[in-house]
Amino acid sequence: MIYTFGESLMDVIVEKTGRAFVRPGGAMLNTAVSLARAGEAVSLISELGDDRTATFILNFLKANGVETRYVKKYYHRNTALALAFLDEKKKAGYTFYKSYPVHRRLTGPGEFSKQDILLFGSMYALDGKLRNQRRELLLAAKSSGALICYDPNIREAARLEDGKTREALFENFAAAHLIKASDEDLAFIFGKLSPGECLKEIRKVNPAAPLVVTRGAAGVMAFVPEGKIELPAEPVKVVSTVGAGDAFNAGMLFAISRKGRLPDGIRFFRLPEWRSSSARGSCFLPLSALPKTITSGGTSIPDLKAFRCKSGSFLHQNKRNKPFAVGGYPSEIPLRYVWQL
Would you put residue 75 in left (φ > 0), alpha (ψ -120 to 50) or beta? Predict the structure, then answer.
């Protein structure tokens, strides 16, 4: 089972032209939907109100095969709302409206297994009111041998000015077996440091976790025990970057899940295997960086037919024959991103 832990909300995406559209959103929800559409068993750990918005989101999740038993509903509360305003470069600036109760209690699995994966991140993972519950969840996952993946997904540097928030950020870094961050995340967290220098800072609290850095049009790089690997991004017409990192996470976790956990850790990150397209079944190889993409204002991996795999097994996993897209946004452009198993 893959668990994604994060905020669920309704996205209102506003383009420069003034055209707006509404979709279920939230980073971990987006990733969960893509994984479920690819045929993975996935469960979302999150919170909603008890309004029509919550009902819409829950129906959407269930229709896409995402387990919702750990989605907590708060009575007489409205579900969170996010306004995403796209700029001329199709990047979004956000305004959030939330109505959580004073006392919040998440539900989650009492225990995990060694085959499980837990993905968490975004500002939700830094919420002080959930700090103890987040620690409990991470401890349960780690003690059971589950793979913990962290995506900081920081919206702006100002949110890290509070000392406790920054402390929580580094707690999350320390807890992860695998860290994925965008170059913008690293800039918000570490300022003008290079990715290699950022890694040195992370190593002060986590000496081993591989770091995957997405850089939009510049491609993706990964820091692994044997060294560093960089891969290019394919040029595409950008319609929106909303949810690009969530789509990247979905592809990455799909490959990890299909590979399976190995007793001695994340051996599929061996450098030669990243470099070699002939290393079938031994690693995941993102040949281009999803944050350069996306679909019609949405989030995205739009269609499994846009993926290629040497063995062809990737394409055969879409048992429900549904588009592989985050948040349900339809595709308007062909993506030629490759996740090779």
Answer: beta
Task: Enter the pTM of the model.
Answer: 0.78
Integer Cα distance of 300 and 30 in angstroms:
8
Pick the CATH number of 2-340 from 3.30.70.260, 3.90.190.20, 1.10.10.10, 3.40.1190.20: 3.40.1190.20
pLDDT in tens, 219-257: 889 898 778 888 888 787 777 777 788 988 998 898 888
Helix/strand/coil for 78:
coil
- DSSP assignment letter at 329: P
- Integer-rounded Cα Rg, in Å, for the chain is 18
Q: Where are the alpha helices (DSSP H) in the chain?
A: 27-37, 52-63, 131-143, 163-175, 183-190, 195-203, 244-259, 271-275
